[in-house]
Task: structure prediction
Amino acid sequence: MDVRLSDYAPIIGPQPIELMRRLGEHLRKKKVKMVNSTAVGGGVAEILQRLVPLFNDLGVRTSWEVLKGGSEFFGITKAIHNALHGSPVELSAEVQEHFLSHTRAQAETFSFGEDFIFIHDPQPVSFIEKKSKSSGWVWRCHIDISSPHPPVWDFLRPFVEKYDASIFSAPSFAQELPIPQYQIPPSIDPLAVKNRDVPEEEVRAYLEQIGVDPDRPIVTQISRFDRLKDPLGVIAAYRLVKRRTDCQLILAGGGASDDPEGSQVLAEIKERAEGDSDIHILELPPFSDLEINKLQRGSTVVLQKSLKEGFALTVAEALWKKKPVVASAVGGIPLQIVHNHTGLLVHSVEGAALKIKYLLTQPEAAQKLGENGHQHVKQHFLITRHLRDYLAVIFSLSFPGQDRIRL
Result:
């Protein structure tokens, strides 16, 4: 059953909900389509699963469709993803042609009669070729493209510049473009299975079930098995901590249909962890939200040691659960972690190990960070704020020239 906007009143209060309902009244006749590359796995899919029903609850008719592709196509889009993060990945003319021929063929299977089309990330970026004058098109980029590999960005940029507007998670993520740019950070849903309260006895039972001792310190990283999440660096940091401070490590994650590298990375992790019974590697199938919730709630410290990052919703999830977080100062993580206030930022394996050890040995400081982090997420990174920001973008494009509306 879909959650309704009114269900969030006990968390955020009635006034923000009333504001969004009044915005929705002005946009009630508008139709919106969201397009991305996967229905399962990753933060974009999770957000759309929760955001689209809330749009419809407000009377803004919104649909969500997914670009289809096989292993060859998603191998290309993964290379593009890495290149936009700065990796020196070259796309041959043949590869570029395969990417475009596939996305153009896919675009023919879609209808674009809505008033607003939101295209998420680079996979369906060429869909803009189907743009008509009667609709507004917005490119929503969830990754940090501040320092892309130039040839790949040069390939994508002409498509991006045809959009009516763009959205980035933070100003530092963006490129200079001749179209309007908006900032909308991602969000978590406090009512989702992944974030709702879970009784402590259920958390303990689950940890025991997977072979983890709930009475010993637990350090956890939950993310896709991706080299940019630096799982081998996580193991290295854990081993530095373990020299002097007892702890267990959980590396939990899964894959996504548009990320073909996951199985290879997982094999590397298992090889590096071999022989250590305190390293627990969990392959989580799709829709393991309750299991992730229990893992985060059962952890002593949550880690997100990414080398590159879009936003890292796992940080916000852990902070919402009042957990102390140690994370790399990359991508959108510094928006969530104010160093020494809502969590601890690090820049290396050694730095991560030092901060993990500090939190394991200073429980009062860890508790204070967790409490501050919870309030920070409540104020800035809940799905209701995300919905309000999207409504504001649609309103600004619907009524250009008006800088305010009397609600």
In short: The chain has two domains: 5-187+382-398, 200-380.
